[in-house]
Amino acid sequence: MELGTVILLIVPExxxxxxxxxxxxxxxxxxxxxxxxxxxxxxxxxxxxxxxxKIGWKKHxxxxxxxxxxxxxxxxxMEINS
Length: 82
Fold this sequence. Notes:
mainly alpha; 4 helices; elongated
């Protein structure tokens, strides 16, 4: 899914679709991480690798919110310019 989205973002004719999919994936992942913070799951999901394994879930959630906001701004700007 992620690689397909990258391809959509690279091709100018499909870039807006790629931006919407990127925003949707960020929203979904942010909701998933919020479920971890609010203990919605019976089992604790495995941690992410790399940098995010060292920052904790609350900081991870804040990073996700920031990236979701950036993706949303990108969609709005692309819609205005099209």
